[in-house]
Amino acid sequence: MKSGHLTILLVLTIAVCAASCAQEKTALGNTAVVPGVESTAMPTPKRDLDVPYVPTHQMIVDEMLRMAEVKGDDVLYDLGSGDGRIPITAAKQFGTRGVGIDLNPVRVTEANQNAREAGVTDKVRFVEGDIFKSDFREASVVTLYLLPAINLQLKPQLMEQLKPGTRVVSHNYDMGNWQPEQTKTITTPDGVDHFIYFWRIPEKQS
Amino acid sequence: MKKIKFLFSATLVAIYAALTIGAQEPKRTTFDVPYVPTPQPVVDGMLKLAKVTASDVVYDLGCGDGRIVITAAKDFGATGVGVDIDPLRIKEANANAKKAGVTDKVKFIKGDIFKTDFSKATVVMLYLLPEINLRLRPQLLEQLKPGTRIVSHVFNMGDWKPQETIYVNGSSIHVWTVPADKKIPTGEK
Q: Are B64 and B33 in contact (CB under 8 A)?
């Protein structure tokens, strides 16, 4: 009698477990494989990425450089540089020296390839690294397209490392209570509005 | 020996009870789409790909615990509406909105997405199923204004090719923009 009970309980327990597992599988089964992307042979980032990679429209790149008044004697740091389009555009258009930092080695390889194709390898450099552990003190311009929360996380580091007067431009995301000196709205041909924010690092308060 | 046997069966009873109670709660078998929460990095990816800013109205069709709309409000300053057919999810989403302090910016509605008016959206978020996306497609094109962005986690829209696809932690996120003539672009098949 007792062992009969036990058997029923065991069978039921197993059945419930199996049912919930199966349900999860059908729901997740569709998400598991994405063909043709990030194949296993590719190098992978040293830690999980904080920021999804969304390339910046060229119209926005041009406007970011214009707002920051980027010139030939500037040193531009792009934090989260993706395929390198911002430093590469600045180097091509103004001869600006640039450094791009990205956590994803795949992006760094891509950016170096793009720099070669653009013939600006003497001007730009792309390095695999964590922006939160990077030294970008030599920058006179910093460009960003991260996430709202990551901008806020980065703000103290920008304030600490950058010289007063250094220009900071960010695509779409602001810096919380740090009021921008200038904000611009750009509408891309697909009808989507983009915001660009511009700040200057203030004099240090001692 | 008897004591051990008793303890063993008591444990099993407890496990069984916990599992059955747990399994009963969602009652999801009657819905079109299983509830699978979207990981936070993917949520951020969807919002970034959609170019969500403070001027957007984000609708999440099948909003689950509300995390997309809540993140849109909390981090990106947007306003948002989540629709879900499961009242349990709506309750959860409202509780989460309260916790995040964004109840003035978001709203969650229990309802069938196929009977919902989402024409006020400037961004629509989806994590449904391929056939549900296809079934929803005419309604999206009919209701949404040109320039509205539609973002789908994993699943596509048949022969309406996405404008851009990104990958976050190995899963794909697609974006479409409602065209000016509100017709699916041809010649892209």
A: no
Chain B residue numbers touching A51 (CB-CB < 8 A):
44, 48
Number of domains in chain A: 2
Asked if the structure places residue A205 within a domain, the reply is no
Q: What is the pLDDT of residue A18?
A: 43
Tell me, what's the pLDDT at B2? 57
| Phi, psi angle pair for B108, to nearest 5° | -120, 130
Looking at residue A99, its pLDDT comes to 98
Domain check: are A9 and A81 in the same one?
Answer: no
pLDDT in tens, B137-160: 999 999 999 999 999 999 999 999
Would you call B51 and A23 a contact, using CB atoms and an 8 Å cutoff?
A: no
User: How confident is the prediction for chain B on average, in pLDDT?
Assistant: 89
Residue A152: count other Cβ atoms within 10 Å of its Cβ: 17
- Domain range for residue A83? 58-200
Contacts of A19 in chain B (CB under 8 A): 23
Best of B2, B36, B181 to mutate (most A CBs within 10 Å, chain A): B36
Nearest 10 degrees: Cα torsion A176, A177, A180, A183: 50
Stated pTM of the model: 0.81
Same domain, yes or no: A82 and A12? no
